[in-house]
């Protein structure tokens, strides 16, 4: 991969990692509700889960979709159902900041890793990155794309979790926190738009 293509890949990873999507909305919500430190496993799970997913997509998952198109439709249905479940969970979460940690927990590392497989934006990013920047699908090129995303992605998603911790100071009233959680749940549902477009 020459330097120009590598630079373009870094820019693509930066833009797609910073833009709003299910991961970033959920990380911001977790930052508000649980704080930055308790959101760290979620952040590491997102970043490492996406790297792992990108490697597997580059090494064969795309061919599975080509050979068995029904698998892609099954994935869409599972994605929609799980995202609606998460949106409902966010919307119905406690509207009290104090004592919230005793009643609910942030997403774990493993949950965040597994979430990448039902995240429409993650699929779009991964498929695009492999198609454009590793068209040969050689092991080295696929791993380089995944590595670049891993290095760029984590600082970007950390910004979203940090933003959540900054917003928290304005959400001290239970009613304000509840409105925020409803808004985040609504945005999470809206992020399903690419599936239906």
Summarize the structure.
This protein is mainly α and 197 residues long. The protein has helices at 3-18, 22-34, 36-67, 69-91, 100-103, 109-115, 120-133, 139-167, 174-190, 193-196.
What does this structure look like?
This protein has 197 residues and is mainly α. The chain has one domain (3-196). The chain has ten helices and no strands.
Secondary structure layout plus pairing:
Layout: H1 3-18, H2 22-34, H3 36-67, H4 69-91, H5 100-103, H6 109-115, H7 120-133, H8 139-167, H9 174-190, H10 193-196
Helix pairs in contact: 1-8, 2-3, 2-8, 2-9, 3-4, 3-6, 3-7, 3-8, 4-9
How many domains, as an integer? 1
Structural class: mainly alpha
> What is the helix fraction of residues, given as a range?
over 70%
Radius of gyration, in Å, reads 17 Å
Strand fraction band?
A: under 5%
User: How would a crystallographer describe the biggest sheet?
Assistant: none
Uncertain runs are 95-102
Distance between the termini: 33 Å
How many β strands by DSSP? 0
What is the count of DSSP helices, taking H or I runs of 4+ residues?
A: 10
Overall 3D form: globular
SSE string, helices as H and strands as E: HHHHHHHHHH
| Quaternary organization | single chain
The whole-number mean of residue pLDDT values reads 84
């Amino acid at each position: 991969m020459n330097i120009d293509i590598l630079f373009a890949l870094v820019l693509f990873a930066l833009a797609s990692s910073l833009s709003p999507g299910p991961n970033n909305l959920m990380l911001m919500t977790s930052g508000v509700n649980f704080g930055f430190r308790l959101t760290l496993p979620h952040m590491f799970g997102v970043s490492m889960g996406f790297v792992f997913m990108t490697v597997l997509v580059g090494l064969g998952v795309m061919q599975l979709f080509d050979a068995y198109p029904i698998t892609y439709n099954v994935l869409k249905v599972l994605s929609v159902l799980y995202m609606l479940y998460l949106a409902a969970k966010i919307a119905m979460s406690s509207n009290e900041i104090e004592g919230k940690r005793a009643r609910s927990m942030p997403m774990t590392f493993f949950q965040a890793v597994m979430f990448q497989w039902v995240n429409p934006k993650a699929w779009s990013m991964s498929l695009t990155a492999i198609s454009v920047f590793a068209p040969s699908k050689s092991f080295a090129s696929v791993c380089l794309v995944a590595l670049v995303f891993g290095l760029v992605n984590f600082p970007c998603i950390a910004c979203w979790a940090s933003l959540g911790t900054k917003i928290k100071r304005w959400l001290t009233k239970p009613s304000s926190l509840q409105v925020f959680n409803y808004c985040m749940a609504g945005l999470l549902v809206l992020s399903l738009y690419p599936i239906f477009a």
